[in-house]
């Protein structure tokens, strides 16, 4: 069965399921604008090999979509399916199938703007939107984002560091306050994990990163500091992208009554992102698998 006939197949299945629930075939066909004789011909047909293949593929697509909470679009579904089933189906096939059955990924929301502070220390935009790296721990990006929980709008703040080669979250910390301690804890965790790392360290011009104390921490570790230009969030594009992924695929899909629930969900998602969420740019591997591949090379 050709892909152009998959939607017709889907409508016939609807008629069949409705009939099993007690609805008349004639009325259902009229509502769906289907020819009854065509439906009966389909119902008594012998399925072709391509038709059976499409049915199996649609079933597996649905499982992947459900497993990832509706956050995967056709590209990631294709990457996941081809990798786990050792197939090479092209993107167009997945595109048509997921749109026929209405499996569309959730959409990201626009990030709100925040009031700027007066900096103690500033740095040039050394990164200059060069978001590629030759090795792991060559370039790190960092940022802080706000999330809410509970009916009274309690706030939590997530700080994270992203490696631009492996695209993995090197470290993260969550707190009830957006302060220096939160950023310093994130930095300390990264150094504990990779004590010999001396990356270019890029951030926006948030007050934590423009403090003299943080500048001293970077210099002690032998890191160069880079900062986004004023009002240019795209200068820290990879971190903005990660926040979008986290909020789109986890935060916006749930309601968290307590701070502890939110903290637990963030930890689980970052582990999922690092160890399970495949990325096309990483040869369809999860970030930590890609980092391991690079380390073994």
- From the spread of the alpha carbons, the general shape counts as elongated
Spatial extent as radius of gyration? 25 Å
In the residues, how many domains can be counted?
3
As laid out across the biggest beta sheet, the strand order is 3-2-1-4-5
The CATH fourth-level homologous superfamily of the largest domain: Ribonuclease H-like superfamily/Ribonuclease H
The end-to-end distance, rounded to whole angstroms, is: 44 Å
Q: Strand-residue fraction?
A: 5-15%
- Give the helix level as a range of percent: 40-55%
CATH architecture of the largest domain: 2-Layer Sandwich
Order of H and E elements: HHHHHHEEEHEHEHHH
Calculate the mean pLDDT score and round it: 87
CATH topology of the largest domain: Nucleotidyltransferase, domain 5
Derived from helix and strand composition plus strand pairing, the structural class reads: alpha/beta
Number of extended strands: 5
What CATH first level of the largest domain would be assigned? Alpha Beta
The biggest sheet amounts to: 5 strands, mixed
